[in-house]
Design a protein that fits this description.
237 residues, mainly alpha, 2 domains, 66% helix, 0% strand, elongated, disordered N terminus, binds fe (ii) ion
């Protein structure tokens, strides 16, 4: 009973006076418990806010699983679509369209190199670009069809058309170097986009396309570098 009669020593004049040891302990325990609950609530809030923001970004289709976008990404503002092959993001759809764009300018550039290249290596590079993009186009269009991706491009972008015009308008003396320089620089950029998509897409059709694109881009960089006319990144500056 003594423990309930205020045998504990409480500060004189304080609100603890007369509460006793048990009362003080219970009050302290309550304060500690309250502190823990507040700390847990704060931690949970800190964790939930970024998750909520990230979820909204994912729903909007702007971000892919990595929470980022590849270089040159264009958002079609259609968000994430559910398909039988997995979620289809704006990044995925942009990739499918960009594969088509690559073929639209590299095909004619490769054809010209196959005809007008002055060395076997340049003509071979041109041939690889024509055949590689023919195959890649088939996979790409099949993916676009089953994924019901609309607004597929039917002509090169203005930038690509500019490169193509430079190649088609090059003098015989300049042709080989111009062709290799412009196409190799473009492949270096698209390689990053392919790697990003291959690593992050959750859609099996897009992953299959990224696999095929990865093989194609590597092959094209190989044959272009074997021409001996590509000396490195400084050529694209
Ligand atoms: Fe290519």
């Amino acid at each position: 009973m003594a423990f309930t009669q205020g045998t504990g020593r409480a500060p004189s004049g304080s609100r603890f006076r007369g509460m006793g040891l048990i009362g003080s302990l219970q009050l302290s325990k309550g304060i500690v418990t309250g502190g823990i609950v507040l700390a847990l609530a704060a931690t949970l809030t800190a964790l939930l806010i970024p998750v909520k923001l990230f979820s909204e970004a994912r729903r909007s289709g702007v971000f892919d699983r990595a929470g980022a976008t590849p270089p040159g990404f264009t958002d079609d503002n259609l968000g994430v679509q559910d398909t039988q092959f997995g979620p289809l993001t704006a990044v995925d759809r942009d990739f499918v369209r960009r594969v088509k764009l690559a073929g639209l300018w590299e095909g004619p550039a490769g054809q010209q190199a196959f005809k007008a290249g002055t060395t076997t290596a340049v003509r071979k590079a041109g041939e690889h670009m024509v055949t590689g993009h023919r195959t890649l186009d088939q996979v790409d269009l099949a993916a676009a069809n089953v994924l019901q991706i609309v607004a597929m491009p039917n002509k090169p972008s203005p930038e690509q058309q500019g490169w193509l015009d430079e190649i088609l308008g090059a003098t015989p003396q300049d042709f080989d170097a111009k062709f290799v320089q412009l196409t190799r620089a473009a492949h270096g950029k698209v390689f990053q986009v392919v790697a990003f998509t291959r690593a992050n897409t959750q859609n099996t059709q897009v992953r299959r396309l990224a696999d095929e694109a990865d093989r194609t881009v590597r092959d094209h960089m190989d044959v272009l570098e074997k021409t001996g006319l590509w000396k490195g990144e400084e050529q694209s500056k």
